[in-house]
Design brief:
The complex is a heterodimer of chains A (252) and B (209). In chain A, the strands form two sheets. In chain A, strands 1-3-2-5-4-6 form a six-stranded mixed β-sheet. A three-stranded mixed β-sheet of chain A has the order 7-9-8, with helices on one face. In chain A, helix 2 packs across helix 5 and helix 5 runs antiparallel to helix 6. Chain A has 252 residues and is α/β, with parallel strands linked by helices. Chain A is extended. Chain A has six helices and nine strands, in the order H-E-H-E-E-H-E-E-H-E-H-H-E-E-E. Chain B is mostly helical and 209 residues long. Chain B folds into two domains: 113 residues, Rna Polymerase Sigma Factor, Chain: A (Orthogonal Bundle); 76 residues, Orthogonal Bundle (Arc Repressor Mutant, subunit A). Chain B has ten helices and no strands. In chain B, helix 3 packs across helix 4. Chains A and B meet through helix 1 of A and helix 2, helix 3, helix 5, helix 6 and helix 7 of B.
Chain lengths: 252, 209
């Protein structure tokens, strides 16, 4: 193989193959044109599920536990049995995906007005994102081009949750370890990275690394927020303007 | 004649419901999208799927596009970039598009064994290259892939990424610097015929302000 960092020269798809692709595309476009034009607006919401003991801390200091970037560390609860339904994304809690979504159904979060959960089926896509659909159909994953939840998922989810919660605890403790002041407590980027690396090591997440989120954060003094990208196996420390309220449970 | 119409005219007709116009745009830009998807996935078969998904997504978003340039290509590469991003919305869009499109049997590339072997070599070479690129922040990867590998100007890459040309320029500059450092640390010849050697001279789009 040629050494170096040059991309290979472009290639054309064979003419007959291109024609097949075009036909399939035009066929789908024709079908879509015939579908009703009034489409339900999709709702996509994010909920952060954390143990109560952490909620006060997390709500004031640590965010982005479930976002677009960290979805594999989370679960998508769909309100209909297809990929275009509304979805509520929650962070992994260590419980089974059916239990996690079941509670949100019972609280009326996944679909407004509901107070009980239907039968739920969990699936994963090729990237490892977990989707939970209201369905009894055991073939739903295959039908939607997805796969069944892999064996060992719950064990891994629990392990991840334990590491994540400990990291939040330890960042909070480190930030508030000094003498109390009226000022919000701040972790420096270096402190956050050190805490994250120590927790990853303690919990034997040996393939993971910790780094500063690669955004433009010039002038942001604190680094108290973390995100988890479990596909890239990275803890991302996110600089911010806000410090940690040293007494999150106190009067405000 | 469709063949002679500008992208803007074809797009206007496609948005008004002309399948023929959309088909002509597909014919015109499929190869560029296919090759861009290959450079981001290192897999010809995946690139083929992504190419189809890109055009389907483009058709769905046809009302959102205001053509401000002669070519629709930067915007199409932007749609492809979005589909390939590793986030919740992108993955779901991709899942939906691929599920909708009729599954074609695996491509049989007719012709000489040389062509088949060449495609296998391409994939190995591209995987290696993406391994290096993957060490850069995502926004730098996208800028490098669009400007240095696909030849878009900073302005066009800005259209694709939805950011100002100046932002693309600084991302390319930082990405190029990081790649050069990586390459140097691995003992590659800086003047070898490779992307970085080409990148070490002024890119045509650098003449922009």
């Amino acid at each position: 193989m040629k050494e170096g960092l040059s991309p290979p020269p472009p290639r054309d798809l064979p003419r007959a193959r291109l024609h097949l692709r075009k036909e399939a595309l035009m066929k789908e476009i024709t079908k879509e044109r015939k579908r009703p034009t009034v489409r339900k607006r999709r709702r996509r919401s994010v909920a952060v599920l954390l143990p109560a003991a952490l909620l006060g801390i997390a709500a004031t200091s640590y965010v982005v536990l479930s976002s677009d970037e960290v979805v594999a560390a989370g679960i998508g609860c769909f309100d209909e049995a297809h990929l275009e339904g509304n979805v509520t994304i929650v962070s992994t809690s260590g419980e089974s995906p059916e239990e996690v979504c079941g509670k949100l159904w019972a609280e009326g979060v996944v679909r407004h007005g509901t107070s009980s959960a239907p039968a739920l089926m969990p699936c994963v896509n090729e990237s490892g994102a977990v989707y939970v659909f209201p369905s009894k159909d055991e073939s739903i994953c295959t039908r939607l081009g997805l796969q069944a939840l892999p064996e060992g998922y719950e064990r891994e989810a629990k392990r991840f949750t334990a590491m994540r919660d400990e990291l939040i605890r330890r960042m909070y403790e480190t930030a508030t370890a000094g003498p109390a002041t009226d000022q919000d407590a701040c972790l420096t980027q270096q402190q956050s990275l050190e805490v994250a690396r120590a927790v990853l090591s303690d919990y034997e997440f040996n393939e993971w690394s910790a780094e500063i989120h690669p955004g433009d954060y010039e002038g942001r003094a604190c680094a108290n927020n973390v995100a988890f990208d479990d596909r890239a196996k990275k803890v991302l420390v996110i600089p911010s303007d806000q410090g940690i309220d040293p007494d999150p449970f106190g009067p405000h | 004649m469709m063949d002679e119409a500008s992208d803007a005219e074809l797009w206007r007709q496609a948005a008004s419901g002309s399948d023929g116009a959309f088909g002509a745009l597909f014919e015109r830009h499929a190869s560029a999208v296919y090759n861009y998807c290959f450079r981001r996935s290192a897999d010809w078969s995946t690139a083929e799927d992504l190419m189809s998904a890109t055009f389907l997504e483009a058709w769905r978003r046809r009302d959102e596009v205001r053509m401000t340039q002669d070519s629709i290509r930067p915007w199409l590469l932007g749609v492809a970039t979005n589909l390939m991003r590793n986030d919740w919305r992108s993955r779901r869009r991709r899942d939906v598009a691929l599920r909708r499109l009729e599954t074609l049997p695996p491509a049989h590339i007719p012709g000489h064994d040389e062509e088949v072997a060449g495609r296998v070599d391409d994939e190995l070479q591209m995987k290696e290259l993406l391994g290096e690129l993957g060490r850069l922040p995502a926004e730098q990867q996208e800028a490098v892939a669009l400007v240095l590998w696909s030849g878009l100007s900073y302005t066009d890459a800005g259209v694709a990424l939805g950011v100002p040309a100046g932002t693309v320029k600084s991302r390319v500059s930082r990405g190029r610097q990081a790649l050069m450092e990586l390459m140097t640390s691995r003992g590659h010849d800086m003047y070898e015929d490779n992307a970085l050697a080409r990148a070490s001279v002024t890119h045509p789009s650098e003449v922009e302000g």
